[in-house]
């Protein structure tokens, strides 16, 4: 769904569309809300400074940073608003005195059930070609031809392997090097990587077996792009933003891409932001060797002593009324505040709370009230806590006791599953956790934790 069709609700029947979870919001959209100042210890300038970008002027000095490419992993729980914030970072840095930003949303183009780093790198190259074409960037035919020739050789090599087992070959014709011809090649490759798993594996194997040469070709192409960007005064350097890793279907896929292919990722010498799934935060010490790992937390709605962070509530009120007209809430100040607190500081979880409140709203009244909110939250609580185990409940009791005494929570693998399922929410530097307020409403939590 396009964000262009994502409009403010003035009737109850329009609320569901206004609180959709699956539409990324850019900084120019009417729904965009800036949560930068209410994320606890996290500050936007941590991202800009990681790339040596001036956080006030958004300028980058490529001479002072020649060869100093940054690979940044932006780690955070799903629903914390990473994608929305990344669109803001891309807009701020996509300037002639800064970067030429190329965003790669993995779930838009790749098979999230069967994904490897080779698929992502091919997609990055394709997106770079698309953005360079749209920006009318001049790229020499010789440079495109060299990369295109290398790709064609790998395709012929893969086809020989596929043909042995009577599979369907990749049909690509040799054409004069151009944006169009190269995009045809990457399009065919992507199509085959998302098709037969056997053929996809053969294609990946060919690229992996030739990866040293592949990385050299890609790095030469990137350097040519950087030179042309400066020559035409479009930007000082290239920056890739690779988003959507947490949307892959299994943790094993994510671990294989980020950790299994980490050495190959590092061989591509270009400024890059990778979103890092929450379960891989435990590997941050390994990833931080000559790279940056930044934790992107939820919005802190409560201090450790339980006091409400009123500044954060106000920002969520702004977030609410940009999407839903205030007249659609009965006793709006009270109802919306309660809904915000149930959201726990997660924009996505808060939208789910509003979805369920709207589900139980009285059409005759034409508004959402506290009664509808409580019914909706009870339903959502039962759904969210359905698969909580006895061991999970012991952990939640430990967490409650720690919050009461305001003790920090040390890292432990026993928290990972609870974090992934959003049973537990994480704030600040990761040592401050709270149970999802919706879960606290469930009969299971009340019975076992109290």
Short description:
By secondary structure, the protein is an alpha/beta fold. It has 20 helices and 7 strands.
Structural class: alpha/beta
Shape: globular
Give the integer mean of the pLDDT values: 91
- Helical content, roughly? 40-55%
List the total number of helices.
20
Uncertain runs are none
How would you characterize the largest beta sheet? 5 strands, parallel
Question: In whole angstroms, how far apart are the ends?
Answer: 41 Å
Number of strands: 7
Written as H for each helix and E for each strand, in order along the chain, the element string is HHEHEHHHHHHEHHEHEHHHHHHEEHH
**Alpha-carbon Rg, integer:** 24 Å
Quaternary structure annotation: single chain
Characterise this structure.
- With 450 residues, the protein is an alpha/beta fold.
- Helix content is 49%, strand content 8%.
- The chain is built from 20 helices and seven strands.
- α6 (141-164) crosses α8 (197-209), α6 runs antiparallel to α9 (211-231) and α14 crosses α15.
- The model has no long low-confidence stretch (mean pLDDT 91).
